[in-house]
């Protein structure tokens, strides 16, 4: 198929990637020549700059591409936070121009579940009343109608989240969350992961499923249910309640959006719920933590754990065990979690799945520690090499870097062959030197404290870790 994607934002870009990967010919439209150039450099699919709010611009595009050769047009452009005027030009005019200029193409319009104005927590499906009382909502409905008249599909997307975007979690971490209305339970959150939203658009277009479809995951929950779970996961206090804000852009509503119709067409979800995504999406939790940590608006909160980092043989596993025993913490070793979860040894994982897969196992093991307190966390030496791990490590606790010279590390690691990066190395010391050069800046950037362990016994190192952690957490309390 030849498919135009108008608007290559959070969802549009993903839909374009999916279509391209499935062998379709994709033309991504962006409104500015600059972003067209940026996308062209980064993406394997074709990009064009086109202002869909201008009928001349869309006609020129149709001429250039050959209007009849286009099989589908997906409208994913956003109003860039604009008000009713932008809704009119981008959504209504944009959709009209696209359906007129590409009359043979199957049109898809990405609308929003905000068209349902219900406020009593009722379940709504595609047949439910959907006449919002605000101008912006009415304009969405108008764009929907243009699409339906052209025998196309309307995808009503719930609240979109994904790596780098999750209002619920970001607000909570920034201390801005509140539970609104519904007798202290808060409104119902209807959400969808951007990957699943994009997959839904591709599904509708490639199957040419005309009509209205809600695009929302399987696990709607109240704000209270969601925030309580997030608070457990991220070690936060449950936010207070407040009355709904009537000036909220999408209006106040409180309803459970059904996805039964879309499921019945064979659409399947990668992330059935928001919490599945926090567990399984390698980047979701870490990207939001990192946004907040780097935003500098709120003080970094650390969980009451001790995290040990450093090269192989620096003593993370050994010292971690001793520290845990001394202070009555639980010892958790990410390498041991990986082995338990995968059901095979680390050398086996490296041999059968490769290092990249090992790193994914390692990130998953680290994410599984969200919500844990009172632990000494011994990590694997390479955990710092994955940028996505850094924000999580920083969040999880007080970080100590155990350091030693490569010569000594080589001696300490010589006794066993459980480390695939050193096994079979003719000169393990040289390899450790190389690794230290690569990783030193990462250890340094992350650590609260560096302990030079060369002249220390594991007990002495453990004592240093314990005392410094005690001081660190005592200061935090003040
Ligand atoms: N001063 C020391 N500190 C830490 N480990 C030491 C020390 N001296 C000898 N070792 C030995 O070195 C090895 C360190 O391995 P391990 O704890 O598995 O490190 P890591 O988990 O950082 O790879 C252990 O066998 C430990 O007994
Ligand atoms: O440095 C690394 O990349 C690795 C370190 C190992 O853990 P230790 O540091 O506990 O040996 C283990 O995770 C894996 O073999 C890879
Ligand atoms: Mg170890």
TrEMBL record:
Signal peptide: none
Name of the protein in question: Shikimate kinase
Gene: aroK
PANTHER family associated with the record: SHIKIMATE KINASE, SHIKIMATE KINASE 1, CHLOROPLASTIC
Assigned EC number: 2.7.1.71
Gene Ontology BP terms: amino acid biosynthetic process; aromatic amino acid family biosynthetic process; chorismate biosynthetic process
Family of the protein in this entry: Belongs to the shikimate kinase family.
Keyword Mitochondrion attributed: no
The record's free-text note on cofactor binding: Binds 1 Mg(2+) ion per subunit.
Pathway as given in its UniProt record: Metabolic intermediate biosynthesis; chorismate biosynthesis; chorismate from D-erythrose 4-phosphate and phosphoenolpyruvate: step 5/7
Presence of the UniProt keyword Protein transport in the record: no
Biological role stated in the UniProt entry: Catalyzes the specific phosphorylation of the 3-hydroxyl group of shikimic acid using ATP as a cosubstrate.
Location in the cell: Cytoplasm
UniProt keyword terms in alphabetical order: Amino-acid biosynthesis, Aromatic amino acid biosynthesis, ATP-binding, Cytoplasm, Kinase, Magnesium, Metal-binding, Nucleotide-binding, Transferase
Annotated HAMAP family: Shikimate_kinase
């Amino acid at each position: 198929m030849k498919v135009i994607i108008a608007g290559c934002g959070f969802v549009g870009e993903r839909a374009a990637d999916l279509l391209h990967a499935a062998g379709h010919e994709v033309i991504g439209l962006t409104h500015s020549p600059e972003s067209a150039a940026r996308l062209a450099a980064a993406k394997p699919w074709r990009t064009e700059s086109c202002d869909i709010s201008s009928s001349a611009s869309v006609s020129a595009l149709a001429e250039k591409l050959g209007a009849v050769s286009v099989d589908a047009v997906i409208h994913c452009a956003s109003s860039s936070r604009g008000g009713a005027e932008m809704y009119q030009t981008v959504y209504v005019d944009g959709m009209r121009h696209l359906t007129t200029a590409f009359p043979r193409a199957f049109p898809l319009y990405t609308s929003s579940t905000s068209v349902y104005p219900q406020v009593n927590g009722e379940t709504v499906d595609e047949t439910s009343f959907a006449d919002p009382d605000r101008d912006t909502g009415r304009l969405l409905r108008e764009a929907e109608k243009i699409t339906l008249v052209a025998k196309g599909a309307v995808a009503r997307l719930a609240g979109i989240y994904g790596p780098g975007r999750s209002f619920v979690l970001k607000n909570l971490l920034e201390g801005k969350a509140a539970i609104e209305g519904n007798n202290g339970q808060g409104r119902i959150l209807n959400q969808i992961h951007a990957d699943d939203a994009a997959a839904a658009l591709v599904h509708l277009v490639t199957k040419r499923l005309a009509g209205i479809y809600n695009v929302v995951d399987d696990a709607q929950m109240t704000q209270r249910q969601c925030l309580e779970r997030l608070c457990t996961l991220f070690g936060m206090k449950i936010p207070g309640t407040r009355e709904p804000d009537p000036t909220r852009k999408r209006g106040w509503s409180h309803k459970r959006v059904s996805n039964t119709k879309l499921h019945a067409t064979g659409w399947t979800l990668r992330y059935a719920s928001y919490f599945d995504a926090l567990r399984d999406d390698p980047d979701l939790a870490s990207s939001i933590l990192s946004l907040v940590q780097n935003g500098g608006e709120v003080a970094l909160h650390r969980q009451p754990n001790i995290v040990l980092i450093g090269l192989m043989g620096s003593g993370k596993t050994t010292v971690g065990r001793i520290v845990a025993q001394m202070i009555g913490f639980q010892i958790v070793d990410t390498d041991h979690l990986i082995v338990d979860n995968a059901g095979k040894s680390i050398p086996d994982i490296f041999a059968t799945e490769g290092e990249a897969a090992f790193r994914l196992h390692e990130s998953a093991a680290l994410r599984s520690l969200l919500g844990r307190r009172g632990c000494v966390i011994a990590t694997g030496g390479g955990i710092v090499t994955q940028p996505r791990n850094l924000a999580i490590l920083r969040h999880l606790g007080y970080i100590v870097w155990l350091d030693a010279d490569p010569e000594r590390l080589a001696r300490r690691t010589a006794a066993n062959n459980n480390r695939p990066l050193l096994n079979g190395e003719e000169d393990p010391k040289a390899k450790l030197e190389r690794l230290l050069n690569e990783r030193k800046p990462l250890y340094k950037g992350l650590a609260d404290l560096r302990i030079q362990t060369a002249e220390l016994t594991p007990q002495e190192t453990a004592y240093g870790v314990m005392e410094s952690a005690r001081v660190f957490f005592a200061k935090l309390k003040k």
